[in-house]
């Protein structure tokens, strides 16, 4: 069975979105990329291990696919942006009851019934599934017990307020799979839900 892997950038104090306009991420997905080379290599290695991306409806409607499609075109020779081309090439699935069909290449819309749709995706043949979405989408996946691995990109900033993905999910015990610190200040912590 394939694993569903949730990646989130996070502050040291556990927030994924800031209250206010703070520049808290080492790399906020713009052109000013301050990740170090080791982190860039590891990030691309992760993307090579997936063949499907689960996206929230809001994420695709707010331009996730066009953003990374444009990045792949702007930086075709930059080895770091290999992940951007991978985002374009792999299958994308958007669970939604609001969208009737996809207007994005290699992207399918499925019912918004997360447990059923994600369970079916995980049972299909293939590699791991990456999931990207906002706080609400991540929280819904966590609440339904669908996430097999968490990858938290901990940024060297304490926000003191904002939104978190675990606030509505109650107590969760996690098992550490690995932790790696990078020169740019990011620490990537990988966890699995405890049995």
Task: Tell me what you see in this structure.
GO terms for molecular function: 5-amino-6-(5-phosphoribosylamino)uracil reductase activity. It comes from Paramesorhizobium deserti. Residues 2-188 form the Bacterial bifunctional deaminase-reductase C-terminal domain. It holds the Pfam family RibD_C. By secondary structure, the protein is of the alpha/beta class. The protein has a single domain (4-20, 36-170), classed as Dihydrofolate Reductase, subunit A (3-Layer(aba) Sandwich), CATH 3.40.430. It has helices at residues 37-48, 57-61, 64-74, 82-89, 114-123, 135-143; strands at residues 4-11, 17-18, 50-55, 91-95, 107-110, 128-132, 149-155, 162-163, 174-181, 187-193. The protein has an 8-stranded mixed sheet with strand order 5-4-3-6-1-7-10-9, with helices on both faces. It has a two-stranded antiparallel ribbon with strand order 2-8. Helix 1 packs parallel to helix 4 and helix 3 crosses helix 4 (82-89). The two termini are 16 Å apart.
Class by helix and strand content?
A: alpha/beta
Q: Remind me, CATH topology?
A: Dihydrofolate Reductase, subunit A
Number of domains: 1
Q: Note the overall shape.
A: globular
Q: How many DSSP-defined strands? A: 10
Count of helical regions: 6
- Report Rg: 16 Å
What top-tier CATH class fits best? Answer: Alpha Beta
How much of the sequence lies in strands comes to 25-35%
- Biggest sheet layout: 8 strands, mixed
- Give the strand line-up of the largest sheet: 5-4-3-6-1-7-10-9
Q: Give the overall pLDDT as a whole number.
A: 91
Q: Ends: how far apart? A: 16 Å
What is the name of the CATH architecture?
Answer: 3-Layer(aba) Sandwich
CATH homology superfamily name:
Dihydrofolate Reductase, subunit A
- SSE string: EEHEHHHEEHEHEEEE
- The portion of residues assigned to helices is 25-40%
InterPro entries: DHFR-like_dom_sf, RibDG_C, Riboflavin_Biosynth_HTPR
GO molecular function: 5-amino-6-(5-phosphoribosylamino)uracil reductase activity
Protein name: Deaminase
Pfam family, one: RibD_C
């Amino acid at each position: 069975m394939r694993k569903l892997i949730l990646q989130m950038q996070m502050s040291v104090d556990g927030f994924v979105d800031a209250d206010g306009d703070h520049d808290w991420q080492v790399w906020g997905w713009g052109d000013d990329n301050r990740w170090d080379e080791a982190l860039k290599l590891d990030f691309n290695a992760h993307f090579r291990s997936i063949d499907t991306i689960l996206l929230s409806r809001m994420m695709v409607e707010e331009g996730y696919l066009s953003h990374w499609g444009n990045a792949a075109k702007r930086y075709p020779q930059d080895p770091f942006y290999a992940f951007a081309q991978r985002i374009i090439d792999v299958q994308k699935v958007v669970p939604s009851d609001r969208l009737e069909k996809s207007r994005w290449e290699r992207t399918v819309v499925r019912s918004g019934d997360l447990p059923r749709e994600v369970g079916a995706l995980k049972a299909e043949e293939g590699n791991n599934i990456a999931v990207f979405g906002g706080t609400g989408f991540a929280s819904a996946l966590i609440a339904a017990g669908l996430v097999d691995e968490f990858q938290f990109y901990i940024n060297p900033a304490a926000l003191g307020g904002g939104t978190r993905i675990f606030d509505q999910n109650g107590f969760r015990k996690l098992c550490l799979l690995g932790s790696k610190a990078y020169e740019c200040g990011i620490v990537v912590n990988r966890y699995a839900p405890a049995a």
